[in-house]
Amino acid sequence: MILAVESSCDETSVAIVNDSQVLSNVISSQYFHSKYGGVIPELASRAHLKTISKITKESLNIANVQISDISAVAVTNSPGLAGSLIVGTSFAKGFALSNRLPIIPVNHIEGHLYSGFLQDSSIKFPVISMVISGGHTAIFLVNSFNDYTMIGSTKDDAAGEAFDKIAKLIGLDYPGGPLIDKYAKNGNPQKYDFPRPMIYENNFNFSFSGLKTSVRYFIHKNFPNGISKTELNDICASAQQAIVDVLVKKVINAAKKNKINTIIISGGVSSNTKLRSDLNTISTKNGIKAIAPELSYCVDNAAMIGFIGELKFNENPNFYNSLTFTVNSNQLRAKK
Question: Which one of 28, 31, 54, 196 has the minimum C-beta count within 10 Å?
């Protein structure tokens, strides 16, 4: 029975996981950042402090378990915002110490990498896993729960960052990705031909800063007096299609080149409805199975941390008795 804590950015989450089954997964999102146009690290840390104890109690209640039932604590310690990570790890260390429990530090990206297994426990290795969020866009070749290699990543902006920056250019609030997805449903994705950076290059890397710049120049040139609702829908649909085309092309190519027939996508951008639809259609045509976790497992969440924490603990239960581990805000390991 694992109690897991996730606080790497602006979601505070606590989950209870037992035998790879999620008994509870409480997520508290910090929506107030929207008025600032992005996450303010200091405010995020303070919000974690106010929330973490409350949602821990809520998670225990939902799972209908007592603290005495918990076998170990798992917590995200990298990568993420340093202040946010410190709040989560400090709370987890205190909880573990006061209840004499082992504590397992977990890499946030590993949580996303394997979150598809929460959706479908029948997945067989090897798989291609693409992590897509506001901070990361990378493709991994995954051979097991402790063997993975990053085979491609973004050279500049992450896909989620590109969505948010484009949204800001056209006057939408933060976070902009879900709003672009919303308005794109009523737009024509073929109306404007935005660039698809690196889509034809023979690698699995990404670059989205050029697309963002292209949209900026396009808006300044064609809509100096503002954007109508119809035009907004078409711009959202066209920009979204450009990003989705690159993501789908790259991950399908990675699966085909490595002769792997299962793809997992994860991270906040994996909730994008157009991405899910196009990936499902194109992967099916290529005889590839594509898995996207349910929405609560796409965003930053503690269930995925608990899942990985449980695997680590079962593998070596006597190893996780140290409270000396630290946070690392920039850690993204290419190979474990």
Answer: 31
Both tokens of residue 58? 């809520």
Secondary structure class of 281 (helix, strand, coil): helix
Let me know the angle formed at the C-alpha of 128 by 124 and 134, rounded to the nearest 5 degrees.
Answer: 125
User: What CATH number corresponds to the domain at position 26?
Assistant: 3.30.420.40
Domain span including residue 132: 123-292
Largest CA distance in the chain: 65
- Report the mean per-residue pLDDT for the chain: 94
The CA angle 60-112-75, to the nearest 5 degrees, is 45
In tens, the pLDDT along 144-196 reads: 998 999 999 999 999 999 999 999 999 999 899 999 999 999 999 999 999 99
Instruction: Return the H-helix or E-strand segment holding 209.
Output: helix 209-222
Q: Which pLDDT does position 333 carry in this prediction? A: 43
The three-state secondary structure class of 224 is coil
Q: Are residues 67 and 160 in the same domain?
A: no
Q: Tell which residue, 39, 11, 80, 5, has the closest CA to residue 332.
A: 80
Sole residue written with tokens 């798992």: 74
In angstroms, the CA 284 to CA 261 distance is: 10
